[in-house]
Write a structure and sequence with these properties.
Elements lengths: L1 E4 L5 H13 L12 H11 L5 E6 L2 E10 L9 E8 L8 H16 L3 E7 L3 H9 L3 E12 L2 E11 L25
Parallel strand pairs: 4-5
Antiparallel strand pairs: 1-2, 2-3, 3-4, 5-7, 6-7
């Protein structure tokens, strides 16, 4: 498995990885899979601010992860949100860990203080995965989303990347050229 930064040519493969999470699980709270254009627009909006990384096995994209703003207001700019999706037939083989470590290391280097992940309450595998990455449960929001005929709780996990002194400067702009993903192979 190798990692590289995602490009617009990867969006269709990434969307196909995401599709079953929307249509067959409660992991995503979306009801309908976004169009390729809408999905592409999401990533275009993150360009230059946050990393998006794909994991390949040979020439095949088998997973992806990205960071995004955790909140909108400027005072939150030291916070980010982590999302990780691995093709369902490739879960549990290390791809998600590689992707997450890369994104977390990049966010730390850019000067982010905290990173968050929102996890559906019944997604025990993701909760255990995030705990292994050093995330701690920060809150539980009971019955926040309704999908697949039931009310679902959401757990908010957080991980500190940098201490309070990181507020001495705003997080740096993200540029792919500043990071070498080959160290995650």
């Amino acid at each position: 498995m190798t990692l590289r930064f995602a490009s617009s040519q990867d969006y269709a493969a990434m969307l196909e990885i995401y599709r079953p999470y929307v249509g067959q699980t409660t992991i995503s709270f979306e009801y309908e899979t976004p169009s390729l254009q809408a999905f592409s627009d999401r990533f275009a909006a993150l360009a230059g601010r946050f990393p998006a990384v794909v994991c390949e096995d040979g020439e095949e994209v088998i997973g992806y992860a990205y960071a995004s703003p955790a909140f909108e207001r400027r005072a939150y700019c030291w916070c980010a949100d982590l999302s990780v999706y691995v093709r369902q037939d490739r879960r549990g083989r290390g791809c998600g860990s590689l992707l997450s470590r890369a994104i977390l290391d990049i966010l730390q280097a850019l000067g982010y203080r905290k990173v968050y992940s929102l996890i559906t309450g019944e997604n025990d595998k993701s909760r255990a995965f995030h705990k292994k990455l050093g995330f701690k449960e920060a809150a539980e929001f009971k019955e926040q989303g309704y999908k697949m005929g039931r009310w679902l709780s959401v757990f908010w996990y957080e991980k500190e990347l940098n201490g309070a002194d990181c507020a001495g400067s705003f997080p740096k702009e993200f540029s792919e050229k500043d990071f070498d993903l080959s160290r995650y192979e």
